[in-house]
Structure formats: structure tokens, C-alpha cells
Design goal:
eight-stranded mixed beta sheet, D-Amino Acid Oxidase, Chain A, domain 2, 508 residues, FAD/NAD(P)-binding domain, 29% helix
Length: 508
């Protein structure tokens, strides 16, 4: 474990979107911050979402107007701050007889358009589907509205980078194994999970942002009862060859009132999900079931001309969402809002625990959690992240940036250049790193993944294993053979000195 200072204002446990968001905000306000994550950044819930920045149209049916308004307001702020990893997307809702009356859907879309101010995104409209539509011919009408796309794992990594730029210490593969509470500070024992070494530090506060482990951390490391238990709900997705040639996504509503998205994904694929299934057990071992796969395929086949089978599934993933709703509600109706539990008194150092949340409101959650932290640190600075541009996001338009980079490196293949733009933005310069032709990008491992990019991810983005690179920093795992994965793992072992089993996320 690298040399660390020993005294911090706050230790944050959990390297998902909430933990990194709080680390960024708190460090930017002047606090001495350490974040520890027992695996890789975004290795659990935060990399297994539907990849959407959205208000949650379906939440209107559950009367969660406050959550929808909050998410809609955040949507545009995030799109402005991260134009490389987030962008607007139009969603088409096919109208079928089992749905709500058309007037009711139009009313819901009107609310969706007007609950919060829109600057970047166009409003909703009614549409007609013609013979060129990918949908079945009997589906002739529908609706269209705006939301946004996000590369969720990239969002976490870039937020961690921003936190580091603000002075935070980010430790991956580092587990909080014990925390002893005193009157004015915590004594925290950290274990490096790659070599087993430990180090003890002190912190005036702890933030428990460990997602599905938020309740369990109290018994495992804090030796105290959890303030509340969370409810774990598994959401699964499948990836298939591209179903529609256009850029629009589709939102499909089944007879059971469940929603499934069909989203353009990584140029050549469609992402289909999600499910909502009650889950017990280790969140790291969550995988899609046969029933979930069949459910998703059946919904898509009820709408699209091209009929899918299980043989079309090229990848699947599952994530466990820690929800704070009671068990009286069905999983799909459980709230995606967030809350905090603050345990503090004159006799005990504070601990703040984060429950629930969704990617779209992660910045707002982080701001609210940091506000609570600042109650214990009166000399901290003001909230600042609403207009905070994430690393690589200092441009306004992907097309313009692509043109600029193409003029500088005309030898870069278009598909590779476009992937660099939507992954690294202006940091593409650091990835190319002086290369003058395709050959000088170094060894090609798979797809369009070259050695320069791998080296950048190892040196600058905490990547250690093949899985880190193939599935979280990039999605080049979609093209990798078992031999490709093994060769990349061998190269990384030489680069990092860490040996890890080359496992794809689809097999976890």
C-alpha cells in the first residue's frame, strides 16, 4: 500500500457513483478526504445500470413527483458537465391497446416536459410508424420524448479523477476491515486486498457509501447495529446485435405494467433491460436467470419484427440495487430516491450512511451528503459541483471535437476516434500520447483496444485487471475472445505486478 498521511477529515467507504461523488464534492470544499473501495471503482451496482440519465417517466405512475422533478433538473446539468460520456437521446414509446389511454400518456409526457426547466432537450410529441420501422406492422402509432445516455462506469472513474484533482486520496482494492469509534475520531484499519497488508489511519468522520453492503458494513467493520436494513433488488440486462439502425431508443411497456428499454449500444449492439427481482446473497455473485432472459426476449419479440432467441445474446450483466422502500411494495414500485442516516453526538465521532439513490441524482445526493459533513467542519467552502466539468469534458459538441481530433490525427480510424471522443473527450491527447500512426499505438489486444490506451488506463485510471479495462473503462470485452482476455491479463500482470483471474462480467 502506498505511503499515506495518517489523519483525514473524512474516510468514505465505497467507490461507486455515490462514494466518488461525495469524495469529489467534499475535497472541493477543502476537506481532507480518503476514499477506499474493496474492489475496482464501479465494480458493483454503478456499472450495471441501464446507462440512462433520466427523470424516470414510469415513476410518475407511482406519484413520485418530487423524485422526478429532482432528476429532471439534474439531467441537464449532467449533460452539460460531461458531454463526452453523456448525450441526449430520443425515446420512442410504441402505443398498444393494453396501455393507458392515449390522452393519459400525453398528460404524463406533458408533466415530464414541464416539471423542470429544459434547455438542451426537445419536448415530447406523437409519432407514426411507417413500413421502415423496426416494429411490427400492427404498431402504427406512439410517442417520442427526450432523456439522456450515460456511460455509468466512466462516470464513476471520471468523478474519482476529479476528486483526486481536488486533493482526495483514492484507494482501490482497499477494504475497510475495522473502524474503532472514539470521542472525536475514528481509527480505521485498511487492508490492501491484493497483498494483504494493512494500515491504520484516523478520521474525524466516516461516510458509509457502500451500496448493497451499506447495512452489512456496520456489523462487519464498525461493530455496531445498522440504523436500517436495505432491500436488494436485482436488475438484469442483455446485449444483442443492433435491432434498429437509427439513434432512437425504445421504451416498451408490458401487459404487467413493467418497462423494458431497448437502447442503441456501442455502435453495433442493442442493450435490453431491466428486470426487477428480489435478491438475497452476495451482490457480487448476482447473475441473470433463464427466466429473466426469457422475459426480456418475450417483450422485445412482442414489439419488433426481428425475432430474438437466446442465441442472439452476446453478453448479459446483473446489478443489485440497494433500495430503501419497505417490502410491502412490489420491486418495480420500490422508490429509487435516497436518504441519509447521521449518527453523531458529543460523545461519538460521526458516521453518515447513504441509502438508495440513482445515477441521475448522484451529484445532488453527494451535495446533500457533503452539506451534512460540513456541519462538523464549519470552515469548509460552499457547494460547487453543479457546474463542475468532469475530466475530458471541456468541450461542447462531440462532432466538433471529433473533427478537431481528425484534423490532427487523420490516420485514426473513424470508429476508434469516435470511441475515444465518447470515452475520454479532450483527454484523448493523453491516450494517443504522441503516436504518429496506427502502428505506433502499440499492440492491438482486441477490437480497437491498443497498448497506448491500456497503458494510460493503468497509469491514470486505477485499472489493474483485464476485466477493469474490457468491461468498465471500455466495452471492448464485447469483441474479446478467451485468448484475447488471457493475453491482456498477462500483459497487465507484467505492468502492474498483480495477478488476477481473467473473468468476463458475463461469467461472474
Amino acid at each position: 500500500m502506498k505511503a499515506l498521511q495518517t489523519d483525514y477529515d473524512v474516510v468514505i467507504v465505497g467507490g461507486g457513483v455515490n462514494g466518488t461523488g461525495i469524495a469529489m464534492d467534499a475535497a472541493g470544499r477543502g476537506l481532507k478526504v480518503l476514499l477506499c473501495e474493496m474492489n475496482d471503482l464501479a465494480s458493483a451496482t454503478s456499472s450495471n445500470s441501464s446507462k440512462l440519465i433520466h427523470g424516470g417517466l414510469r415513476y410518475l405512475e407511482h406519484y413520485e413527483f418530487r423524485l422526478v422533478r429532482k432528476a429532471l433538473a439534474e439531467r441537464e446539468a449532467l449533460l452539460k458537465n460531461s458531454p463526452h460520456i453523456m448525450w441526449p437521446m430520443r425515446f420512442r414509446l410504441p402505443y398498444r391497446e393494453h396501455l393507458r389511454p392515449a390522452w393519459m400518456i400525453r398528460t404524463g409526457l406533458f408533466l415530464y416536459d414541464h416539471l423542470a426547466k429544459r434547455e438542451l432537450l426537445p419536448g415530447s410529441r406523437s409519432i407514426r410508424f411507417d413500413a421502415d420501422s423496426p416494429l411490427k406492422p400492427e404498431i402504427t402509432r406512439g410517442f417520442e420524448y427526450s432523456d439522456g445516455w450515460v456511460d455509468d462506469a466512466r462516470l464513476v472513474v471520471l468523478t474519482a479523477l476529479k476528486a483526486q484533482e481536488c486533493g482526495a486520496t483514492i484507494l482501490t482494492r482497499t477494504k475497510c476491515v475495522h473502524a474503532e469509534r472514539g470521542n472525536d475520531q475514528w481509527r480505521v484499519t485498511l487492508e490492501n486486498t491484493t497483498n494483504g497488508t494493512t494500515r491504520t489511519i484516523s478520521a474525524r468522520t466516516i461516510v458509509n457509501a457502500s451500496g448493497p453492503w451499506v447495512s452489512r458494513l456496520f456489523s462487519d467493520a464498525f461493530s455496531m447495529p445498522a440504523p436500517r436494513m436495505i432491500r436488494m433488488v436485482k436488475g438484469s440486462h442483455i446485449v444483442v446485435p443492433r435491432l434498429n439502425k437509427d439513434t432512437e431508443a425504445y421504451i416498451l411497456q408490458n401487459e404487467d405494467d413493467r418497462i423494458v428499454f431497448v437502447i442503441p449500444y456501442e455502435d453495433h449492439f442493442s442493450l435490453i433491460g431491466t428486470t426487477d427481482v428480489e435478491y438475497e446473497g452476495d451482490p457480487r455473485k448476482a447473475t441473470i436467470s433463464t427466466d429473466e432472459t426469457d422475459y426480456l426476449l418475450d417483450i422485445v419479440n412482442a414489439h419488433f419484427k426481428h425475432q430474438l432467441t437466446t442465441k442472439d445474446v452476446v453478453w448479459s450483466y446483473s446489478g443489485v440495487r440497494p433500495l430503501m422502500d419497505d417490502e410491502q411494495q412490489p420491486a418495480q414500485k420500490a422508490s429509487r430516491d435516497y436518504s441519509f442516516e447521521v449518527d453523531a453526538s458529543d460523545e461519538n465521532a460521526p458516521v453518515i450512511s447513504v441509502f438508495g439513490g440513482k445515477i441521475t441524482t448522484y451529484r445532488k445526493l453527494a451535495e446533500a451528503a457533503t452539506d451534512k459533513l460540513c456541519q462538523f467542519f464549519p470552515k469548509t467552502g460552499p457547494a460547487w459541483t453543479r457546474n463542475a466539468v468532469l475530466p475530458g469534458g471541456d468541450f461542447t459538441d462531440q462532432i466538433d471535437l471529433s473533427a478537431q481530433l481528425k484534423s490532427r490525427w487523420p490516420w485514426l480510424p473513424e470508429e476508434l476516434l469516435n470511441r475515444y471522443v465518447r470515452t475520454y473527450g479532450t483527454r484523448t491527447h493523453q491516450v494517443v500520447n504522441g503516436a504518429t500512426d496506427l502502428e505506433s499505438l502499440g499492440r492491438r489486444f482486441t477490437g480497437n483496444l491498443y497498448q497506448n490506451e491500456v497503458d494510460y488506463l493503468v497509469s491514470g485510471e486505477w485499472a489493474i485487471t483485464a476485466e477493469d479495462i474490457l468491461w468498465r473503462r471500455t466495452k471492448q470485452g464485447l469483441y474479446a475472445t478467451a485468448e484475447d482476455v488471457g493475453e491482456l491479463a498477462s500483459y497487465l500482470k507484467l505492468s502492474t505486478g498483480v495477478s488476477a483471474e481473467p473473468v468476463s462480467e458475463a461469467e461472474e
